[in-house]
Amino acid sequence: MSELKAGVGLSRKWDAREAGREVAETALEKLEGEKPKFFLLFSTIHYEKYGGFQELLNGVWEVLPEGTPLIGGTVAGFMNNYGCFARGATGLAVHYPDMRVSIGVGHNTKRNPKKAVEECIDMLRAKDSLNKTEFYIEIVSGPVIPSFPGVGRQTVIKSKTMGRVMEKALPTLWKSNMGTDRADEILEHISAQIDKPLIGLVSIDNGKLLKNYQFLDREVLENTLLLMGVSTQLKPSFFSTSALVPRGIKVKISTKKDRRTVVRINDKEATPELYRLLGWDEKSVREVEKFYTQAFYYPFGSLREGKIHAYMIGLILGSHVYFANKIESNELELYSLTADQILLETQKIFSREAKLIYGVMCETYIETLGSRIYEIKNIADKTHSDYLILFGGGESLILEDGTPHHLYESINLISFQDI
Fold first, then answer.
1. Which residues contact 93 (CB under 8 A, 6 or more apart)?
2. Which of 40, 52, 220, 292 lies most in the core, judged by the most C-beta atoms within 10 Å?
3. Can you tell me whether residue 110 is helix, strand or coil?
4. In the predicted model, is pLDDT for residue 208 greater than 70?
């Protein structure tokens, strides 16, 4: 008999409390009466208007055994044994006899990433779990598009003068826990403190980047880092790949000290050169949602330790282009994303059977694939495993060799076999 037991839960109910109760019930019934060692809870942003996330958690705890470690957050969508969904709630309950779990939490991730990581690691260290952990599951609060005074919620500021004003305002926005998620900086600080593998997710809403929430036991949080350390004899396997394809267009850039603000591309003003390279009509990218939809399909990137590190355009600030994450190289290449490449890479990464698979992918895949997302589900079904794949706003990974990678447009899995 298998000692590793996992249950994936689902609810599509609109009422938050009822959904919480059902997602816990459907997950726990697969454990055959065993108490879960931990519970992961994820939902789409819809429950904010249908009872609220506190009610979602209240429903979960009507069913979940007292004291079960729980973390989670909002995501753009998810895929599991039941199907592919852009609305609803899902959960993962896991039991294994020798498994031990500790949770650390850090607050104000945008205001001070380093301090948030220190707070989180100190909690884990106080529980004497750092040296015993085999792997980590990370959840980080995602980006929130700022509302600029006198301008509103904009991603494209045409005026050079106003663009410079907005640049100066960005650090102030971080102090208010708005703007980019700084998940790349968070991962860098984490990797300096731990030496075990990690799989991480950036928590977001439905792609509008207005709000996102994280769940810790019975609490609903914002602007938070959650780190779950798992100690077990199980030896999970980590897999990572990217569906990005180089377009053969290479550029040289110049940035400000923040390594996010690009002032020159190919020794020309950044914004006009960006539009030329992408073939964008300035008028077509003024709408916020349309801007990000287009930008995510054509990221710039560079290779590091065999991984494509994509850099996502965050804002157009006059003649400058502001990126969501720090740019590691002054020489970049333009990439593109296609449904065919996503399916090809997915086929490679889901190549073996497993007892349990947990994974994170970029939320852009939902729109890119459309109805073809069920082709990924068909591939996952062939592993004969319980599985939960989440679609978020960025993916973090620390490999077995200790190398950290904060990625976009990537596919990352952790799979488990009984020993």
1. 6, 7, 9, 24, 27, 28, 30, 31, 36, 38, 39
2. 40
3. coil
4. yes
Task: Tell me, rounded to whole angstroms, the distance of Cα 58 from its chain centroid.
Answer: 25
With cut-offs at 50, 70 and 90, classify the pLDDT of residue 90.
Answer: very high
Residue 159 pLDDT exceeds 80:
yes
Q: Which residues contact 416 (CB under 8 A, 6 or more apart)?
A: 4, 6, 234, 236, 237, 354, 355, 356, 357
Task: Over range 135-150, report the average pLDDT.
Answer: 87
Please tell me the distance from the alpha carbon of residue 376 to that of residue 87, in angstroms, as a whole number: 18
Query: Which burial class, exposed, middle or buried, applies to 15 when counting CB atoms under 10 A from its CB (0-12, 13-18, 19+)?
Result: middle
Work out the angle at residue 355's Cα, subtended by the Cα atoms of residues 349 and 357, and round it to the nearest 5 degrees: 45
Distance CA 39, CA 230 (A): 12
pLDDT at 1: 44
Structural element, H or E, at residue 103: strand 100-107
Range 212-244 burial, b when 16+ CB lie within 10 A, else e: bbbbbeeebbbbbbbbbbbbbebebebbbbbbb
pLDDT in tens, 25-81: 999 999 999 999 999 999 999 999 999 999 999 999 999 999 999 999 999 999 999
Beta bridge partners of 219: 216
On whether the CB atoms of residues 68 and 92 are closer than 8 A, the answer is no
Question: Hey, which residues does 39 pair with through a beta bridge?
Answer: 70, 93
| Strand boundaries in 272-347, DSSP class E | 300-304, 307-311, 313-317, 320-323, 331-337
